[in-house]
From TrEMBL:
GO terms for cellular component: peroxisome. Belongs to the GHMP kinase family. Mevalonate kinase subfamily. It catalyses: (R)-5-phosphomevalonate + ATP = (R)-5-diphosphomevalonate + ADP. Residues 368-437 form the GHMP kinase C-terminal domain. Its EC number is 2.7.4.2. One of its GO terms (biological process) is ergosterol biosynthetic process. Coiled coil: none annotated. This is Phosphomevalonate kinase. Pathway: Isoprenoid biosynthesis; isopentenyl diphosphate biosynthesis via mevalonate pathway; isopentenyl diphosphate from (R)-mevalonate: step 2/3. Keywords: ATP-binding, Kinase, Lipid biosynthesis, Lipid metabolism, Nucleotide-binding, Steroid biosynthesis, Steroid metabolism, Transferase. GO terms for molecular function: ATP binding; phosphomevalonate kinase activity. Residues 161-223 form the GHMP kinase N-terminal domain. It holds the Pfam family GHMP_kinases_N.
């Protein structure tokens, strides 16, 4: 039986609140999906085996042989450092599960010979090499002029990532594309989507060698939401290279016992625009996380109190954002007028505007609550001696908040010197904040093109995505 090609796409993420806290089930995080997405294209082929290509990278080629008789086995042709753990684990475990789900005899008549092309939006990686080659600066305008899925001119090992979560978006798009291609799932069916989620979490954890918080895979599957993690035990028991399709399907199905993660849909309120910047200094997230957790372990009383207080302000930020969305639905005219008004003043001035109404007071509460979130992150920095919101980032964030119409400026996820995000109320504010970034000399601040986009994993058509067909 021959199948036509299949394309699945999954978004990157920005963790607005909940860094460090989301590692524990007691706390939650607010994660926003990005317009930057990964695409996996599966094309049936006459050549034997599974060929995987990542045309944006030097050495982005891997070949695998699949045998199902007498045993199910995926054998990579590459060895050592040229292997790709995320691609390999996606193929091995997804195909094993698909075979179980569609039935071994039905799977037996399908051809698995195919070419798989993986493409990540330019925003996932530094575009410095392309920009230099074209003699362009790293402004927003120059980036917007680059071709889609540009060659990074380097290898996956050496590329500078921008923190949108390439491995989670890649894994999710590849797992979903394989499941859909072999007709094992219908992504419009909630239980099937949950299976894709659980499988992508397993694959991602296996490939990275540890059970992490999983918020990045969750965002790649569900898009923007409030995240509460799953009990890590649910995966710990099957973290084994030899795990077979029967066991995988049993543990990863939507009805399977133990999956207690929570996903509460979330969207930024109307008129709120998320903009992002990559900071060239960079931080090594696992090092930051290791140090913070070591401090937490050594100082449980102080840390618990801080975690609880931060968790409570994180929840307040989320609640006010939800209240603002409700206010827009109830009183769209008033809401629009307030956004207009606030976009012409600095956030620090909103509390003293002459008008008083419910929407303005929500805007003021938002600024106030996010101020507390940042204060507590700085306290965490000082106590643990980990640069979560280091002084250089504080200065940059304060400069962004001096722009009229900036609501929030913060460090996403684990913080450090990696990135910042701002939420602004007008195009003018967007441009002005980007000017602040461009003129900032204390740190090298590169804008990203991504916007917030609440959509999770989807199937797409080749013609729907500019640049996709040309990259095949
Ligand atoms: N375009 C791509 N094609 C193939 N593999 C990719 C691609 N982008 C990322 N990966 C995989 O993800 C890994 C990066 O994961 P990681 O270091 O955890 O970064 P991130 O924080 O962006 O997820 C790469 O080494 C590679 O295995
Ligand atoms: C500290 C954390 O809670 C958040 C880290 O999130 P980031 O988005 O900062 O980092 P990457 O996933 O490495 O890109 C750890 C976790 O939940 O994995």
């Amino acid at each position: 039986m021959t199948l036509s090609h299949t394309i699945a796409s999954a978004p990157g993420k920005v963790l607005l609140t909940g860094g460090y806290l989301v590692l524990e089930q007691q706390f939650q995080g607010l994660v926003v999906g990005t317009s930057a997405r990964f695409y996996t294209i599966i094309t049936p082929s006459d050549e034997p085996g599974i060929q995987v290509r990542s045309p944006q990278f030097d050495g982005g080629n891997w070949h695998y042989t699949l045998t199902v008789q007498p045993d199910f086995q995926l054998t990579p042709s590459s060895s050592g450092t040229s292997r790709n753990p995320f691609v390999e684990a996606s193929l091995r475990f997804t195909l094993a599960l698909v075979r179980e789900k569609v039935g071994r005899s039905a799977f037996g008549v399908l051809s698995t010979d195919c070419i798989i092309t993986i493409l990540g939006d330019n925003d996932f990686y530094s575009q410095q090499a392309q920009l230099e080659k074209l003699g362009l600066d790293s402004s927003y305008g120059s980036l917007a002029g680059l071709p889609p899925f540009a060659d990074t001119m380097t290898s996956l090992k050496d590329v500078h990532k921008t923190g949108l979560g390439s491995s989670a978006a890649l894994t999710t798009s590849l797992v979903a594309a394989l499941c859909a291609h072999f007709k094992a799932v219908d992504l419009d069916n909630q239980k099937d989507r949950t299976l894709v989620h659980n499988l992508a979490q397993f694959v991602h954890c296996f490939a990275q060698g540890k059970v992490g918080s999983g918020f990045d895979v969750s965002a790649a599957v569900w898009g923007s939401h409030r995240y509460r993690r799953f009990n890590p035990q649910v995966l710990a028991s099957i973290m084994d290279q030899q795990v077979d399709g029967t066991l995988l399907l049993k543990h990863l199905s939507a009805d399977s016992f133990g999956w207690d993660n929570e996903v509460a849909p979330f969207k930024l309120p109307p008129g709120f625009d998320l903009i992002l910047a990559d900071i060239d200094a960079g931080s090594h997230t696992p090092t930051l996380v290791g140090k913070v957790l070591a401090w937490r372990k050594a100082n449980p009383t102080t840390a618990n109190a801080l975690w609880v207080e931060l968790g409570s302000y994180n929840s307040k930020v989320e609640q006010v954002l939800r209240d603002l969305t409700t206010a827009e639905q109830k009183e769209p005219v008033l809401y629009k007028a307030v956004i207009e008004k606030c976009s012409r003043h600095k956030a620090s001035e909103w509390a003293s505007l002459p008008e008083t109404n419910e929407v303005i007071s929500k805007m003021v509460q938002l600024v106030h609550n996010f101020g507390h979130v940042r204060r507590l992150l700085r306290e965490m920095s000082q106590l643990s001696e980990v640069p979560i919101e280091p002084i250089e980032q504080t200065q940059l964030l304060e400069a962004c908040l001096e722009v009229e119409g900036t609501v929030i400026a913060g460090v996403p996820g684990a913080g450090g010197y990696d990135a910042i995000f701002c939420i602004v109320l007008s195009d003018k504010a967007k441009q002005q904040v980007r000017q602040v970034w461009q003129g900032w000399s204390a740190l090298s601040v590169g804008p990203l093109l991504s916007k917030a986009d609440s959509k999770g994993v989807t199937l797409v058509e080749l013609a729907d995505v500019p640049g996709l067909a040309n990259s095949l």
